[in-house]
Amino acid sequence: MHYWSITLVLCLGTISAQGAEDAPAQAAESSLAQDEVAQGFVRIFDGQSLDGWRGSTDGYLAEDGLLVCKKQGGGNLFTVREFGDFVFRFEFKLEPGGNNGVSVRGHEIQVLDDYAPKHEKIKPCQYHGSIYCTVPAQRGHTKPAGQWNTEEIRCQGSHWKVTVNDAVIVDVDLATVPGAEALARRTKGPLGFLGHGSLVEFRNLRVKPL
User: Residues near 203 by Cβ (< 8 Å), separated by ≥ 6?
Assistant: First the structure.
């Protein structure tokens, strides 16, 4: 093979590899892992639009496969569909000091940069993964701002469980929590995000109804 041919092959190989590495995250959004499909998971975000969502649609945008809470936007964005018992899996990335939340049956599960200095004096029940001001989460399992985290929220009856980066940080029967009786009785509602004017990115949003 001539020298120029070898060079062309190497260059094409480099471009191909780089293109695959830089492919938009929406490629990952377009399909679920086969094991999750077999388990009954479905996507609730198509990676390209806010179809199937209502509320503050101007405070969020679909960009390169990501659901982005705008830095000067946010607000409450909900699925049109409501869910009873479910497992909700997603990934999130926060800017430094970032603050958002997951709406579950009309209540908030906190999404927060726990390590930000401005959050040093908040209540234990306000840190990431907590059932907001109801059940505090175990701390120390989120990654620093700017890195992707995985999260799973499981709600079955009054039993709620939150797992972050493979660590269980909340596992509670709300029926046993003083003051949470009304929340424990809620059986259905949309899923959503509760933005507070900071940049937070989400991807790979999928739900398994139970």
Answer: 25, 28, 29, 47, 65, 66, 67, 90, 91, 148
> Of the candidates 197, 185, 34, which has an alpha carbon nearest to the alpha carbon of residue 101?
197
Measured CA to CA, the distance from residue 184 to residue 168 in angstroms comes to 20
CB 160 within 8 A of CB 131: yes
Which run of H or of E encompasses 35?
helix 34-39
Residue 18 DSSP SS3: helix
* Digit-coded pLDDT (tens) for 32-56: 899 999 999 999 999 999 999 999 9
- How far apart, in Å, are the Cα atoms of 64 and each of 48, 67, 133? 7, 9, 34
* Maximum alpha-carbon separation in the chain: 78
Confidence check: pLDDT of 85 > 90: yes
Distance CA 25, CA 123 (A): 35
| CA-to-CA dists, residue 159 to 39, 49, 99, 201, 209, angstroms | 20, 32, 25, 27, 15
